[in-house]
Amino acid sequence: KQEVTQIPAALSVPEGENLVLNCSFTDSAIYNLQWFRQDPGKGLTSLLLIQSSQREQTSGRLNASLDKSSGRSTLYIAASQPGDSATYLCAVRPGNTGKLIFGQGTTLQVKP
Amino acid sequence: DGGITQSPKYLFRKEGQNVTLSCEQNLNHDAMYWYRQDPGQGLRLIYYSQIVNDFQKGDIAEGYSVSREKKESFPLTVTSAQKNPTAFYLCASSSWQGNFLYTEAFFGQGTRLTVV
Question: Please, are residues A87 and A38 in contact by the beta-carbon 8 Å criterion?
């Protein structure tokens, strides 16, 4: 059974720091991996989608990498800002149904 | 604007009552999903549908029912059989490009259901 783990559960950093959020999954047979952001009481906002054939994706200050063989993905946030404070979730698609299996998330606080 | 609309934003249910949560998308996506989010438990899949008139149970389908009569709509009914329905419910959709390549999943803003 596919399991997704995100460590740490919470992270607090000063503004301007570069940071890395980690996501690991137990079964490397995935079709793609997606990173989301969730603000308190809100829905999920898609940040980046990485297909299984890709190694990384970039969007602005965000860069996500994927290493299927080791079952890991990282989300790199450059020059963090207070507005980046949110919960970040990663999810994998283990098969052709399009189902997403989520990690528990990392709650990020960026202090001014 | 294209997107997913969930309604209502807040819903209160009395004991023994069935309630229906609405999810509508205008993204022309084939697949739609319902997730439940509880504090400390992440998102868990309730039901999903890959095409109209077809749907499958997810990990926690007991006490819930769905229908998929139109491509753009995927309503979720929380029945009285669901013993602990208080949670945040999220609807999502995605499409696929062939060769099992699914596109990004997009989520609605959620419905917070509370039992009173």
Answer: yes
Nearest to B50 among A34, A36, A98 (CB): A98
Instruction: Provide the phi-psi class of B51: left if phi over 0, else alpha when psi is between -120 and 50, else beta.
Output: beta
Give the tens place of pLDDT for each residue, A57-94: 999 999 999 999 999 999 999 999 999 999 999 999 98
Which pair of tokens denotes residue A25? 């999954």
Do the chains contact at A99 and B90, CB–CB below 8 Å?
no
How far, in Å, CA of A22 to CA of A97, rounded? 25
Q: Does B103 touch chain A (CB under 8 A)?
A: yes
Contact B94 A98 (CB under 8 A): yes
